[in-house]
């Protein structure tokens, strides 16, 4: 159901940061926040050629959404599976959305299975997927802003070849959808040459900020997610987060995390108590990690799944080096209800929970953990999400994108580039013998 735009907004709860941060310090952040907001909104800072994401929700047209939905409907008609081939920002948002909405077991229930490839270079994993697709009708969506990412290009070749073998070159073309830069890159050239259907990632939108382009929206629509509701949530966030005051939840989040960082908390854990949020965590990790980790600065983003990770990381979080704070994504209302039943003989000693919801147990675990961590000098921020639906998913994605832009400017870095990612690529290309990398290859070979 599409949500009414007057429903409650997600909020940042800072009630568990006191002791680690003084109220007066938080208030002193106001001029810095105002400046960071202005820099972002006026486009006067570093990276201002990559601010296209800022107004994507309000500027994406109905015609653009129609085109995405039409392609998704076609895929749903002629395919039992879609392989999304991309890495980093070119798949994490789509995967996060699909698992958030349809659950981690979506491929066991949804009529069109969504597989992800091009996000690794594992022969075994590639072969396993090829085997899986042998006897089912499938389409592929190759997603790469640059059009030259190795992991994606390798998998794209394999699956294009598989489609050609299965359907013949002409029919295969109708099953290949390309999402890339509108003007440049090898993938754009290939799509033009072969006549594949294409969708643009606008030139001024960076990979990790591209979830509201076809990059995120096409796989979401194939998975049956209502992309208009996702965009409605994002649109509301675009409006509400434009408020220039401490009432702005993105300001509060950006301010609190930067103050923690300045007070020696160098690691932020994003915690959720819902397994379906694992990839929201991974998407967030890339967003903040690539945006802020540069020039020798940055909060290290680590996403953890609770309660499972309390049984592996819990000891360290509670008692190890005091270098971290946590941000909990809290869904206020569980969409499902499981009530524990009473047993005649209480052998497992669980009857005291009879009649209680599992969600009540989960929330009690969360609240108990927050208090224990706060006592153990792990300050806590909470992002309250009213419900697990498309609207709030859109709002959540936009909230983090906007907060990340503000936070990066507060930190004094360019939040929209990723120069460090290029280093491994240069070495890899040189070692693989890519033309143009001969000199680097010579140097590297001496060191191996
Ligand atoms: O944020 C970014 O731009 C990167 O992390 C990219 O998302 C990632 O490297 C994939 O790049 P591309 O879409 O060009 O294949």
Task: Give an overview of the whole structure.
By secondary structure, the chain is α/β, with parallel strands linked by helices. The chain is 49% helix and 14% strand. The protein has 19 helices and ten strands. The protein has helices at residues 23-28, 30-42, 56-59, 62-78, 92-102, 106-109, 123-133, 150-167, 169-173, 186-194, 214-222, 227-240, 249-262, 278-292, 314-319, 358-375, 390-411, 421-432, 438-447; strands spanning 11-16, 81-85, 113-117, 138-144, 176-180, 197-200, 267-272, 300-305, 324-333, 380-387. The strands form two sheets. The protein has a five-stranded mixed sheet, sandwiched between helices. Strands 3-2-4-5-6 form a five-stranded parallel sheet, sandwiched between helices. Helix 14 links the parallel strand 7 (267-272) and strand 8 (300-305). Helix 2 crosses helix 17 and helix 13 packs across helix 17 (390-411). The longest helix is centred in the last third of the chain and has 22 residues, at 390-411. The model is unreliable at 1-6 (pLDDT under 50). Bound molecules: 5-phosphoarabinonic acid (PA5). 5-phosphoarabinonic acid is lined by residues 87-90, 144-146, 149, 152, 206-208, 290, 418, 421.
Q: Would you kindly provide a brief summary of this structure?
A:
49% of the residues lie in helices and 14% in strands.
Helices and strands, with pairings:
Elements: E1 11-16, H1 23-28, H2 30-42, H3 56-59, H4 62-78, E2 81-85, H5 92-102, H6 106-109, E3 113-117, H7 123-133, E4 138-144, H8 150-167, H9 169-173, E5 176-180, H10 186-194, E6 197-200, H11 214-222, H12 227-240, H13 249-262, E7 267-272, H14 278-292, E8 300-305, H15 314-319, E9 324-333, H16 358-375, E10 380-387, H17 390-411, H18 421-432, H19 438-447
Parallel strand pairs: 2-3, 2-4, 4-5, 5-6, 7-8, 7-9, 9-10
Antiparallel strand pairs: 1-10
The chain binds 5-phosphoarabinonic acid.
Residues 87-90, 144-146, 149, 152, 206-208, 290, 418, 421 line the site of 5-phosphoarabinonic acid (PA5).
């Amino acid at each position: 159901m599409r949500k009414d735009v007057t429903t409650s907004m997600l909020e940042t709860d800072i009630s568990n940061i006191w002791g680690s941060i003084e109220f007066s310090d938080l208030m002193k952040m106001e001029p810095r926040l105002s400046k960071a907001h202005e820099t972002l909104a006026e486009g006067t800072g570093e990276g201002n050629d990559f601010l296209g994401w800022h107004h994507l929700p309000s500027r994406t047209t109905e015609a653009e959404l129609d085109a995405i939905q039409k392609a998704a409907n076609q895929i749903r008609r002629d395919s039992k599976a879609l392989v999304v081939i991309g890495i980093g920002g070119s798949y994490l948002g789509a995967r996060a959305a699909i698992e958030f909405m349809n659950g981690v077991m979506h491929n066991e229930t949804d009529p069109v299975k969504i597989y992800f490839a091009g996000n690794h270079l594992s022969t075994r994993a590639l072969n396993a997927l090829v085997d899986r697709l042998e006897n089912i009708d499938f389409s592929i969506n190759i997603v790469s802003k640059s059009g030259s990412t190795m992991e994606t290009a390798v998998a794209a070749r394999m699956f294009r070849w598989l489609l050609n073998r299965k359907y013949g070159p002409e029919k295969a073309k109708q099953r290949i959808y390309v999402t890339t830069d509108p003007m440049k890159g090898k993938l754009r050239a290939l799509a033009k040459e072969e006549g594949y259907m294409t969708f643009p990632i606008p030139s001024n939108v960076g990979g990790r900020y591209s979830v509201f382009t076809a990059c995120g929206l096409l796989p979401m629509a194939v998975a049956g997610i209502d992309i208009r509701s996702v965009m409605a949530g994002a649109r509301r966030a675009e409006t509400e987060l434009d408020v220039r005051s401490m009432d702005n939840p993105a300001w509060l989040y950006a301010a609190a995390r930067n103050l923690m960082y300045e007070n020696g908390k160098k690691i932020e854990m994003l915690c959720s108590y819902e397994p379906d949020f694992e990839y929201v965590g991974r998407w967030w990790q890339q967003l903040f990690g690539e945006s802020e980790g540069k020039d020798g600065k940055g909060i290290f983003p680590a996403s953890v799944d609770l309660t499972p990770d309390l049984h592996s990381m819990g000891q360290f979080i509670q008692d190890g080096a005091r270098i971290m704070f946590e941000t909990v994504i809290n869904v206020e209302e569980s969409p499902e209800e499981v009530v524990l039943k009473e047993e005649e003989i209480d052998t497992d000693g669980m009857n005291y929970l009879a009649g209680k919801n599992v969600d009540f147990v989960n929330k009690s675990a969360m609240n108990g953990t927050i208090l224990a961590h706060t006592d153990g000098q792990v300050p806590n921020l909470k992002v309250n999400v009213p419900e697990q639906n498309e609207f709030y998913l859109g709002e959540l994605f936009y909230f983090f994108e906007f907060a990340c832009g503000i936070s990066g400017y507060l930190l004094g870095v360019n939040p929209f580039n990723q120069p460090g990612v290029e280093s491994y690529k240069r070495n890899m290309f040189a070692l693989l013998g890519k033309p143009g990398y001969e000199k680097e290859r010579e140097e590297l070979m001496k060191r191996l």
